[in-house]
Amino acid sequence: MAERIEAFTVDIPAATAITSALVTPLSFNQGIVSRMEIVVPPGPSGLVGFRIRHSGEVIIPHGRSGWLVADAEKMDWSLEGYPTGNAWDIEAYNLDGFDHSIYMRIHVNETGRSSAIYATIVPIAPGGTAENDDDSLALADS
Predict the structure, then answer these.
(1) Which helix (H) or strand (E) holds 94?
(2) Which residues pair with 93 in a beta bridge?
């Protein structure tokens, strides 16, 4: 289960050509993307296409040259092993005469969390030294 969910609405204006596709940053605090949900409401009728990128490189769909085209569809992917960080964006075109929107939810797990460190205090007998720590432990346990 993700530690947070980032939500985005991607608005794609009418008459956005493939050759000048709109790039919308998906900016969020640093983290590991574990899952992505995309909802394409009814209406585009095959005239809207999009692809997901990271650092300017197409990640979804695989192959880097294709586009996802959908109408009244929900897409849901687990993204194990995909790039981390917040350099994601969506590139989209819209050949329709009407504006369209795509809704995205990105499930993110935090990065950089430090694990708790536990220390055990071991008493050393008075006058103990590093050379006789083992003897000190024996004395402390008795």
Answers:
(1) strand 88-94
(2) 49
DSSP-derived letter for residue 118 is -
Handedness of CA 113, 3, 40, 74 (dihedral sign): positive
- Residue 121 one-letter amino acid: I
What global pTM score does this model have? Answer: 0.74
Structural domains in the chain, CATH included, are: 4-109 (2.60.120.220)
Q: Give the pLDDT of the chain (142 residues) as one tens digit per residue.
A: 889 999 999 999 999 999 999 999 999 988 889 999 999 999 999 999 999 999 999 999 987 789 999 999 999 999 888 888 779 999 999 999 999 999 999 999 987 654 444 455 656 666 655 555 555 455 555 5
Nearest alpha carbon to residue 95 among 10, 40, 15: 15
Q: Return the bridge partners of 127, or none.
A: none
**In contact, 68 and 49? CB cutoff 8 Å:** yes
Determine what percent of the chain falls in helix, strand and coil, rounding each to the nearest 5. 10, 40, 50
Name the token pair of 105: 């939810």
